[in-house]
Design goal:
The complex is a heterodimer of chains A (341) and B (226).
Chain A: H1 20-31, E1 36-39, E2 44-47, E3 57-64, E4 81-87, H2 93-103, E5 109-114, H3 117-129, E6 136-141, H4 161-174, H5 179-192, E7 193-199, E8 219-222, E9 233-236, H6 240-255, E10 262-269, H7 275-291, E11 295-302, E12 312-319, H8 322-329, E13 332-333, E14 338-339
Parallel strand pairs in A: 3-4, 3-5, 5-6, 10-11
Antiparallel strand pairs in A: 1-2, 2-4, 7-8, 7-12, 8-9, 10-12, 13-14
Helix pairs in contact in A: 2-3, 4-5, 6-7
Chain B: H1 2-30, H2 35-52, H3 62-80, H4 85-102, H5 108-127, H6 137-152, H7 157-173, H8 198-225
Helix pairs in contact in B: 1-2, 1-3, 1-8, 2-3, 3-4, 4-5, 5-6, 5-7, 6-7, 6-8, 7-8
The chains are: A alpha/beta (341), B mainly alpha (226).
Chain lengths: 341, 226
């Protein structure tokens, strides 16, 4: 009970609320000087050896509070730059313009944008600021099956697939893919991946100082995003086998996964759930998929796209083929993901 | 006109700061809980910009100086606020600036109506949204229509801005029973019903402060001409 109990008072490891984002970025830079440098004027994390001539530059960004996304994914085989906004608030076009200019090696720049109105608008404005000078393409992730997609709404949110996309598209860019090729790979990852999450607790936006929503001791919020926003419905807390089923079933249905298909299964912590529970959740996901004859070809378990101290988890499934598997396995060396080097 | 706009912006900054916790609380119910915080940061940046701003060069018309000021406000919001409200409000001010520059020679009331219509249209275009989706447009479009009607009826600046204020306030209240289909609240689906939209609320707030400033301004000019 204690680990997941709702916290009503703000108790955080900070100096001043306004200094949290720049001080966290400074810490990231100090911890990984071999991988990244920090543009302190713009709150941007830049790959240490950027720009790399002839390589497509990859930029992502968004509100802070989702660490290690995005700054933790800057480095070999993944992003060239990440723009950090205030907590849960999209960065501004000036930051994105500066990042785009900092990583352009002459082969163009791909903007990886999560589908939230603010992120989309600010990245569109940034692309206009460099139009005619740097070739920019954007790919928008919208993998959250909790949201009904419709021509008449803001559409689905970009969540867990964003992490997988940054890794896979980053590998393609590192291998020398053109801007069009890398963008096509990114679009394919988004099309073949879906996610859904649930929360056991809310989170506290530092500048607000109070939990974004209140949950009863025996309640879970199902269909959450990554900004502490309430979800689609509330349920009573249930065994993890059941809660995993709530998330996996809509994803399998939406992707149309069948017996014999292979997926990358990603169980993500929202920031406040210990790994022992996340592996328990992965065990449940494994049993559910195994029961349907769906093979887990690759996996990722841990806190990779978070919502501050929120307890809970999300499941992302990505339909794999040989191309995506090869790009997933390619070397990566960033503060938060490293293998093959 | 420029001095009146500047007085409005400074008063708006104070009101936004005072109302920031209430706006954030509305946003916590249906969004990500940052609307008041972001708007407060944006208006603080506007005040800093106003403090550093040189006086208009001699020979600049009042409309041109006002348009230039509003353009600067728009750029400040776009480069300081982030989120969706930064580009949306920023674009509103940029469009308003364009309308006022185009309406050089018009009365302040006519210039205001043209600016408000352009601002609402700019937000609708950028946000790909329209009325009835529980957004700031549910305050701004009714406000623009009411202001136009008041102007056509011979209203002066104080009357026209008061009409805009009342329509915006009613429009913000009308978002309570709406199903949000645009913006962060749309992710809640049916659960967005029963909550007043934070963007519509902040839009109504800005127009309330504007009507207050116009009422004070017309009292001042009446006193000056007496």
């Amino acid at each position: 009970m204690a680990a997941n109990a709702p916290s009503h008072a703000m108790k955080k490891l900070i100096n001043k609320v306004d200094d949290l984002v720049p001080e966290s970025l400074a810490g990231l830079g100090a911890a990984h000087p071999d991988l990244v440098r920090i543009d302190t004027a713009n709150n941007n994390v830049i790959r240490k050896d950027a720009p790399r001539q002839g390589k497509v530059g990859l930029i992502s960004g968004g509100g802070s509070g989702h660490e290690p996304m995005h700054g933790g994914y800057v480095g070999l085989g993944m992003l060239d730059a990440a723009c950090a906004g205030n907590v849960f608030t999209s960065p501004v076009p000036d930051q994105m313009e500066a990042a785009t200019r900092a990583v352009d090696g002459g082969a163009g720049v791909l903007h990886i944008v999560k589908n939230y109105t603010g992120d989309v608008l600010n990245f569109e404005m940034a692309a206009e600021l460099v139009a005619g000078e740097i070739e920019v393409q954007a790919v928008v992730t919208n993998d959250d099956v909790a949201v009904q997609d419709s021509l008449y709404t803001a559409g689905r949110r970009g969540v867990g697939v964003t992490v997988l996309l940054e890794k896979i598209a980053g590998a393609h860019a590192e291998a020398g893919g053109s801007l069009a090729d890398v963008a096509a790979t990114a679009t394919k990852v988004n099309a073949q991946g879906r996610s859904m999450g649930l929360a056991l607790t809310s989170c506290i936006v530092p500048a607000a100082g109070t939990p974004t929503f209140q949950l009863g001791d025996d309640e879970v919020e199902v269909g959450i995003g990554i900004h502490g926003e309430p979800g689609r419905r509330r349920e009573k807390l249930a065994p993890i086998d059941d809660m995993a089923e709530w998330l996996v079933s809509p994803i399998v249905g939406d992707l149309g996964l069948k017996s014999g298909d292979t997926v990358l299964a990603f169980v993500n912590g929202m920031g406040g759930t210990p790994l022992i529970e996340l592996y328990g959740a992965f065990n449940s996901v494994n049993k559910i998929l195994g029961g349907q004859g769906i093979k887990i070809g690759r996996s990722l378990v841990g806190n990779y796209i978070t919502s501050l101290e929120m307890a809970g988890f999300s499941v992302t499934l990505l339909r794999l083929d040989d191309e995506l598997t090869k790009l997933w396995d390619a070397p990566v060396h960033t503060p938060a993901l490293r293998w093959g080097v | 006109m420029r001095e009146g706009v500047e007085a409005w912006l400074r008063a708006a900054a104070e009101r936004v700061h005072a109302e920031a916790p209430a706006l954030t609380a509305l946003d916590q119910a249906i969004g990500d809980g940052d609307h008041g915080i972001n708007l407060d940061r944006g208006f603080a940046a506007i005040v800093a910009m106003l403090d550093d701003r040189p006086a208009p060069v001699d020979g600049t018309t009042d409309a041109a100086a006002t348009a230039d000021l509003l353009r600067q406000v728009g750029k400040t919001l776009i480069s300081k606020v982030g989120g969706a409200s930064g580009p949306l409000y920023g674009t509103a001010f940029l469009r308003g600036a364009g309308a006022i520059a185009a309406a050089d020679g018009a009365s302040p009331a006519a210039a205001f109506v043209a600016a408000l219509e352009a601002a609402a249209g700019g937000i609708a275009g950028l946000g790909k949204a329209t009325e009835g989706e529980a957004t700031m447009l549910d305050a701004l479009f009714p406000a623009a229509r009411a202001a136009r009607t008041s102007l056509d009826g011979g209203g002066d600046l104080a009357t026209v801005t008061a009409a805009a204020r009342d329509a915006a306030a009613a429009g913000a209240t009308a978002t309570i029973p709406m199903l949000a289909t645009k913006g962060r609240a749309s992710y809640l689906g049916e659960r967005s019903v029963g909550h007043q939209d934070p963007g519509a609320t902040s839009s109504a707030l800005l127009l309330t402060v504007l009507a207050d400033a116009a009422a004070t301004g017309s009292a001042d000019s009446a006193a000056a001409s007496a």
